[in-house]
Amino acid sequence: MKTFKIIVMLLLVSGFAINNANSQKVEKEVFEYWYDLAFPCMDQTLSGWLTVERTKRDNHLQVRHSGTLTGSSDGLEYYAEMMTNITPGLDNVRWDELDQKAITLTWPGNYHIYREGKLIAIIHFAFHYTVNANGDYTTYHGYVYECNLVGEGRIK
């Protein structure tokens, strides 16, 4: 009986050791991009360089924008952060075909705007972009479709 248990343990350990799980191909790119974000509900256009992190994995695209922006009307600094996950629809191309085919996509995002470490606004934003077959972003723009001022953001 003891020999049988040892053989079973060896089979289990060897089974885990030769696991042939397929690993997902992960592509990540990080770059800086200048933004002029007009937020009428805040009576502000926030401008500055944001760090953009794009991670592609298994036909999902995760995007994070973050950084410090300056308000055009008050000159104050604001911290902005947006994170979203994007999965193309069935009639769209796959992200792994990005360098082979053109992609046109509109997707929503939520900017969280902070001033002095406190959340003051959640801004619902829609992005639209087109990428040509060379991987160049030929169109990239967005617009605000809802703005929720919170905490100190409600006081003007």
Q: What value does the average pLDDT take?
A: 77
Rg is: 23 Å
Poorly predicted segments: none
Helix content: 10-25%
Task: Please tell me about this protein's structure.
Helix content is 10%, strand content 58%. With 156 residues, the chain is mostly beta strands. A 7-stranded antiparallel β-sheet has the order 1-2-3-4-5-6-7, with no helix packed on it. A hairpin with a 2-residue loop joins strand 5 and strand 6 (118-131). The longest helix is centred in the first third of the chain and has 16 residues, at 2-17. The mean pLDDT is 77.
Short characterization:
10% of the residues lie in helices and 58% in strands.
Topology (elements, then pairings):
Blueprint: H1 2-17, E1 26-39, E2 44-57, E3 60-71, E4 77-86, E5 103-115, E6 118-131, E7 137-149
Antiparallel strand pairs: 1-2, 2-3, 3-4, 4-5, 5-6, 6-7
Based on the model shown, name its key terms.
single chain, 156 residues, mainly beta, 7-stranded antiparallel sheet, 58% strand
